[in-house]
Amino acid sequence: MRLAKVLGTVVASQKDPQLQGFRFLMLGVVGPDNRPSGGSVVAVDAVGAGVGEMVLFASGSSARQTVETDKKPVDAVVMAIVDSWEVDGEEVYRKGAPEA
User: Low-confidence residues of the chain, pLDDT below 50?
Assistant: First the structure.
């Protein structure tokens, strides 16, 4: 699992029939310090995440382990909305707190 911020949505009117009904999110990957760590990824949203929220996502074969994505052509899936995290006893992120 990796941490990311939801940057926006991706709309694809033409897609594999197995992906009908899925919502796609553009994610910006972040490190444990909540700073961009380079790269972005498009992921299927399995939890109803919104733009600006911090999420956990899985990629590769793990992305096909949710009920919604089982045996689907998916390489990344958002499976959790993050409330908070800390590193070395210091809170790095808390949902709803003003950004530094």
Answer: none
- Kindly list the distances between the CA atom of residue 46 and the CA atoms of 67, 94, 97, in Å, as whole numbers in the listed order: 9, 21, 24
In one-letter notation, the amino acid at residue 13 is: S
Q: Alpha-carbon distance 44 to 34, whole Å? A: 22
Task: Determine the pLDDT at residue 100.
Answer: 64
Residue that is written with structure tokens 């594999």 in the block: 16
Task: Give the domain range for residue 45.
Answer: 2-86
Q: For residues 47 and 6, is the Cβ–Cβ distance under 8 A? A: no
pLDDT confidence of residue 61:
80
CATH code assigned at 82 = 2.40.50.220
**Does pTM surpass 0.85?**
yes
Report angle CA 35, 28, 60 to the nearest 5 degrees: 120
Residue 41 belongs to some domain of the structure: yes
Give the contacts of 46 (CB within 8 A, at least 6 positions apart).
Answer: 66, 67, 68, 69, 77, 78, 79
